[in-house]
Amino acid sequence: MKNIILENKKKFVIILIAILLIICAIVGVFMYHKYQRQKELDTYTIQITTYHDSFSNTDDRSKKIEVLQNISKDFTSYNKTDTPLNEIIQQYNDEIGTMKSYFTSEYEKTISDNTLDNLEEITDKESINTAKSNLSALAETITSETDTVCTEEEALTYTDSINTLITSYENRITAIEEQEKREAEEKAKKEAEEEAKRQATQQASSSNNYNSSGSSSGGSSSGGSSGGNTSSSSSGGRYQTGTSWYEDENGRTEYQEYSDGS
Questions:
Q1: Sign of torsion, CA 175 177 182 183?
Q2: What CA–CA distances, in Å, run from 153 to 108, 147, 159, 160?
Q3: What is the pLDDT of residue 231?
Q4: pLDDT tens across 207-221, in order?
Q5: What is the three-state SS of 57-83?
Q6: For residue range 113-123, what is the model confidence (pLDDT) as tens digits?
Q7: Which helix (H) or strand (E) holds 50?
Q8: Which residues contact 131 (CB under 8 A, 6 or more apart)?
Q9: What's the CA gap between 234 and 140, in Å, rounded?
Q10: Residue 232: is its pLDDT beyond 80?
């Protein structure tokens, strides 16, 4: 009987030890995985923080783009691992989203700054051309940064908005130039009319001066005249100063007098 009890105790102890060993193994495995998980989390947190600092500590736009490209590549690689951690995925998404918003905010500010209010009232072509040039440059930048800063669909939304503004600016510039052309033509026509009037007035004044001179120097000659009529006409440097009529037994005779005395 004692042997049976002793044997049972030994079996119980063996079973208890086995259970303890299993528990220790399970705990050990759990702790190992927890350690490895924390190690992975710490490693990627440090790496993501390094990207954050590099992005924040530079004002060079091209370097910021380079940092965004690098962190995006690392995130893509990490997502392809067997068991990516949700915490690390979230950190990547948050940091990449912050970096992208830096550039998209810049896009939106440039569009806003170069959107001209009351366009139909603007007559300054230079200001319109400046806004147009700024928007054209932005469209090229967005196209070059597509897939880094934004998706193709997002880029298309931006460029469509930009192209609509550029088209409206081109139409306004055309309207201003057409108005300037009409005004220039009207001004030239008015100046031509005024010049024609001036010349006509000058010619009339000269003709009146000639007539006045002819009237004062011309007159009727004695010797049986019956009435007289004076006139003045110019022919080169010689002009008519008057006309006289005489009557005698031969009838009425007309005499024309000229400035040279003939």
A1: positive
A2: 16, 10, 10, 11
A3: 43
A4: 666 555 555 444 444
A5: CCCCHHHHHHHHHHHHHHHHHHHCCCC
A6: 999 999 999 99
A7: helix 2-56
A8: 114, 115, 116, 165, 169
A9: 75
A10: no
> At CA 199, angle to CA 194 and CA 200, rounded to 5?
95
Taking the C-alpha atoms of residue 185 and residue 88, their distance in angstroms, rounded to an integer, is 71
Q: What is the pLDDT of residue 57?
A: 96
**Helix, strand, coil percentages for the chain (3-state, nearest 5):** 75, 10, 15
Task: Using the Cα atoms of residue 159, residue 165, residue 169 and residue 170 in order, give the sign of their dihedral.
Answer: positive
- Is the pLDDT at 32 greater than 60? The verdict is no
Q: What's the predicted TM-score (pTM) here?
A: 0.64
- The candidate with the shortest Cα–Cα distance to 259, out of 204, 207, 214, is 214
Name the β-bridge partners of 239. Answer: 234
